[in-house]
Design goal:
Elements lengths: L2 H15 L7 H6 L17 H4 L1 E2 L2 E4 L1 H11 L1 H21 L25 E4 L5 E4 L39 E14 L3 H4 L3 E16 L5 E13 L6 E16 L6 H4 L1 H65 L4 H36 L7 H5 L1 E4 L14 H11 L1 H22 L4 E17 L27 H10 L2 E11 L5 H68 L5 H35 L3 H4 L4 H6 L18
Parallel strand pairs: 2-9
Antiparallel strand pairs: 1-2, 3-4, 5-6, 6-7, 7-8, 8-10, 10-11
Helix pairs in contact: 4-8, 5-8, 8-9, 8-12, 8-15, 11-14, 12-14, 14-15
Length: 651
């Protein structure tokens, strides 16, 4: 008693030092029945978009384009939910529930318009007209082409057996309360002492059930019934009967073992890792797609400039011919030809400008959450600020080293390994289902009976006045609730039992079929894993071939452009000495413009091949400084690129 004031003082000090008021017990209990909060989706773009708009122009560097995709792209936004969805399966499995599964597909970025179209008109340095074709896409680079799959890891419609049921790991509390009145006619008054037995009863029970990883199932129950009757023959009236029982069931064959009963938890945690890898794969697909869209836009803009130069050359030729026709030194048919050349050049320019505008539209849609629904985005003219650069010399690549790097970095392979691991875990459950069901069952129960002496019972004929029938009962049963609890806790009326329960299937065809099917599906997954490795090899080796071919095409285009410029220079010198005509000079100027357009297209295909090899090696995120954790949060730490102080006029 002396310690109570000191204990109260210490408790008050501790409470005063607590920074937050502890959550009430009833509030903590209510948390069990409340849904977990899921934040609403925001369709607002990241602040980076507004910071890049100046005077109606959206100045966009390649790092900014990648950052905007990471922050705003809806394919990535959709994929952000799946790791959290996979964690809900872990929560279900920890509670003893089955799994709802995950989604193993990645969305590819919109392909866009592509680079400048091919074939492009060109001519040899000798001046004779020829037609040359420049690859306009990666599928034109080599005979070996690898389509980009949307499936991740091992795909298929495999469905493994659920195996033995999992005990409920989350404890559950059950209770009931009932009042009943019953009138029962009696055929004899010997037992009840009355021709019509009236009973009022109150019944209540409470039960607690809990399962464990070993397969053990525990059921603890308490029940009590209070009755009041009009029977004079009852010794106790009213009386309360109660019992406290513990039932334990332990599987010994089917459903036995920690690993067996936690298999869904292991699968769910593997699925969490898998969805992290799928998110990474979505990042790679989106970033690679954005790089290609950006490079295509740069190439299309360069192609527009070439077409503008071509139109200017055609316009000058037309004007010169018009003057000569007026002077009578040139046939009128030459003016008609020059006019047709102007019309064709104007059509080519309109086509190229249309391609550029469509590419802008695609890129705006990919880099923002609402696309052109935002008026400021729709009206902004997109100006790329990162030029396409090509190395002077192609680095030497060892194919074995590249393959080893791809096998280390490609998330698809790790996803496939996790799927095979989950298949082994599921197969454990299928095989366990083959075993007979043998359970060890134990029961421990205590009973209690309390009440008051029945005042309706007549005195016994013992010769002793005032002696009632209550003297023939156990006086320890006279009492109320406390007396009954004392009887339960002291085990005054115990019951014990232990036994075995055996269920032995005489034929086990369902379980045998499940095991056989699951093993065959596992073999399928192993074959698909080898197939996936082969696809990775094919993708890497095909990308190397495509890159080498693209480099050769680009070098040839550069050489052709150089020769055409030299041819134009020679023709200008001949024109200065009177050995050439104005028409030939203008024609060679057109050839130079076309050669430059060819070089633009070839350079665009070359950088596409670089991006494809980068993706095949799994180096896209690493090479562009994209951290998966930061991307999952939807924010890139890199600040926006500097916007030009004097932006050019928008189109």
């Amino acid at each position: 008693m002396r310690a109570i004031p000191a204990w109260l003082a210490l408790s008050a000090c501790a409470f005063a030092q607590t920074p937050q008021t502890p959550q009430p017990w009833y509030d903590r209990l209510a948390e069990t029945y409340r849904p977990r909060r899921v934040p609403a989706v925001s369709f607002n773009n990241s602040p980076r978009v507004d910071s890049l708009i100046r005077a109606g122009n959206l100045y966009l560097s390649l790092p900014d384009a990648i950052a905007l995709a990471v922050e705003n792209n809806l394919d990535i936004e959709v994929e952000r939910f799946w790791p959290e969805i996979a964690s809900t399966d872990v929560l279900r499995a920890k509670g003893g529930g089955t799994l709802r599964g995950i989604y193993l597909l990645v969305n590819e970025t919109l392909p866009g318009i592509g680079g400048p179209p091919s074939p492009l008109l060109n001519s040899a340095a000798s001046g004779s007209l020829t037609g040359t074709t420049v690859p306009g896409s990666l599928t034109e680079l080599a005979a070996i082409t690898v389509p980009t799959p949307t499936g991740i890891g091992i795909t298929g419609a495999a469905s493994f057996s659920a195996g033995p049921p999992i005990p409920p790991f989350d404890p559950s509390l059950t209770s009931s309360l009932q009042w009943e009145h019953q009138d029962t006619p009696q055929t004899s008054t010997v037992t009840s002492g009355t021709p019509a037995l009236a009973t009022n009863s109150y019944t209540g029970d409470v039960g607690l059930e809990k399962g464990f990883s070993t397969g053990t199932l525990i059921d603890l129950s308490f029940n009590a019934a209070r009755q009041n009757t009009n029977s004079p023959s009852s010794i106790l009236n009213p009386f309360t009967s109660s019992s406290l029982a513990l039932n334990v069931t332990q599987p010994l064959l089917r459903g036995f073992g920690i690993g067996m009963n936690r298999r869904f938890i292991r699968i769910a945690k593997n699925n969490e890792k898998t969805m992290d890898l799928v998110f990474k794969q979505q990042l790679i697909a989106t970033v690679s797609g954005v790089i290609q869209l950006y490079d295509d836009l740069v190439s299309l803009i360069e192609d527009v400039k070439v077409k503008q130069e071509t139109l200017a050359v055609a316009q000058r030729l037309y004007e010169d011919n018009h003057v000569q026709v007026d002077q009578g030194t040139l046939a009128p048919v030459e003016l008609t030809r020059a006019q047709a050349g102007v019309a064709a050049a104007r059509q080519d320019l309109a086509n190229s400008q249309g391609y550029e505008q469509q590419q802008e539209l695609v890129l705006k849609t990919v880099l923002t959450k609402r696309g052109t629904a935002d008026r400021s985005i729709r009206d902004a003219h997109l100006i790329p600020t990162t030029p396409i650069e090509t190395p002077e010399k192609e680095p030497v690549r060892n194919i074995d080293d590249l393959l080893a790097e791809a096998f280390r970095n490609r998330p698809e392979l790790e996803e496939a390994r996790l799927q095979i691991s989950n298949s082994h875990i599921s197969l454990e459950g299928s095989r366990n289902e083959l075993l007979p069901e043998l359970d060890l069952v134990g029961i421990a129960q205590n009973a209690a009976l309390t009440g008051q002496a029945n005042p309706l019972t007549p005195p016994a004929s013992t010769g002793t006045t005032g002696t009632s029938s209550a003297s023939f009962t156990d006086q320890s049963s006279i009492g109320s609730v406390g007396t009954g609890l004392s009887q339960l806790l002291t085990g005054r009326y115990p019951t014990y039992a232990v036994g075995l329960q055996l269920t032995l299937p005489l034929r086990n065809r369902v379980a045998q079929a499940d095991v056989e099917r699951d093993e065959m599906q596992l073999r399928q997954f192993q074959v698909q894993y080898q197939q996936l490795e082969n696809q990775v090899r094919l993708a890497v080796e095909g990308a190397v071939i495509a890159l080498n071919q693209a480099r050769t095409a680009y070098d040839a285009a550069v050489e052709t452009r150089t020769l055409q410029e030299q041819s134009l220079k020679i023709e200008l010198e001949r024109y200065a000495t009177g050995l050439s005509t104005n028409f030939l000079v203008m024609q060679y100027q057109s050839f130079v413009a076309q050669a430059r357009s060819t070089e633009v297209a070839a350079r665009n295909v070359y950088v596409k091949a670089q991006t494809a090899l980068e993706r095949a090696l799994g180096l896209t995120l690493e090479n562009h400084n994209i951290a998966v954790d930061a991307a999952y949060r939807g924010r890139v730490a890199q600040p926006p690129s500097a916007v030009p102080l004097n932006p050019p006029q928008s189109r």
